[in-house]
Amino acid sequence: MRVLVLEDEKKIRELLSLYIAQEGHEVEAFSHAEAALEAFSKRPFDLLISDLRLPGLQGETFIRRIRETNDVFIVVLTAKTAEGVKLSLLKDGVDDYITKPFSLEEVLYKIKNIERRLMKEESLVFTFNDHRFVLKKNASIVLKDGRKIPLNETEFSMLIFFLKHPNQVLSRNQIMDACLEKSEAFDRIVDTYVKNMRKKLGERALIETVYGSGYRFRGEKHA
After folding, report:
1. What's the predicted TM-score (pTM) here?
2. What whole-number distance in Å separates Cα of residue 107 and Cα of residue 105?
3. Cα–Cα distance, 218 to 52 (Å, whole number)
4. Nearest alpha-carbon partner for 207 in 174, 166, 153
5. Distance CA 122, CA 180 (A)
6. In a 3-state reduction of DSSP, which class is residue 173?
7. Beta-carbon contacts of residue 144 (< 8 Å; ≥ 6 apart)
8. What are the pLDDT digits (tens) for 2-42?
9. What span, in angstroms and rounded, lies between the C-alpha atoms of 172 and 220?
């Protein structure tokens, strides 16, 4: 997994990074939320471990900012034990929390459990134009470099269909039969869906128009 650690106490930050790396994970560690936000804007992460009391931008605000656009698994380190605080964290999108002081063994057990959960998710991964896309089929979520893409149900179905038939010319009727079988719309409705998908995904060339025939998917699937 790719893990981001956000902790302003140097000793804790370094120990967490060391132990997590020894478990075979890729770790990036920061002491300020602003630097962590910049890291998220450049590459995806599977897990965020964050303190709440931070210099500058506070942890709660940082987490809300991350959760607006990102589906990363979030574990919070906190000395705040009040029930209202815990409920507020869950409301903001935190998946789990660890109460300070904590043992490194506790953190590692949490990470192992998260890793098992993430591995169970049925996902399809593909790349295009140096971007990484992940389709989480069970949750009907599409991520681009870790950021959620707001595809509707039909667009999501079409993207899966394209991904399962890379570099093949697919006619509008084939796409209709696979993804819009209950629709009474004309086959040209496929053009509208493709146009919207290109805009949302930010990659016009990802779904290539083959004039007179249909469309061809140009993403490179990963095993």
Report:
1. 0.57
2. 5
3. 42
4. 166
5. 23
6. helix
7. 131, 132, 133, 201, 202
8. 899 999 999 999 999 999 998 888 899 999 999 999 998 88
9. 22
> Hey, how many other C-beta atoms are within 10 angstroms of the C-beta on 140?
13
Tell me the fold of 2-120. Rossmann fold (3.40.50)
Domain 123-222 fold: Arc Repressor Mutant, subunit A (1.10.10)
Where do the structural domains in the chain lie, given as residue ranges? Answer: 2-120, 123-222
3-state SS, residue 223: coil
pLDDT digits (tens, 9 = 90+) for 181-221: 766 667 789 999 999 999 999 999 999 999 999 999 999 88
Query: Which residues, other chains included, contact 101 with Cβ-Cβ below 8 Å and sequence gap of 6+?
Result: none
DSSP H helical segments within the chain, as ranges? 10-22, 33-42, 59-69, 83-91, 104-120, 153-163, 172-179, 189-201
Tokens at 168, concatenated = 């093949």
Closest CA to 140 of 126, 127, 122: 122
User: End-to-end distance of the chain based on CA atoms, in angstroms?
Assistant: 16
Strand order in the sheet with 131-136: 147-149, 141-144, 131-136, 123-128, 220-222
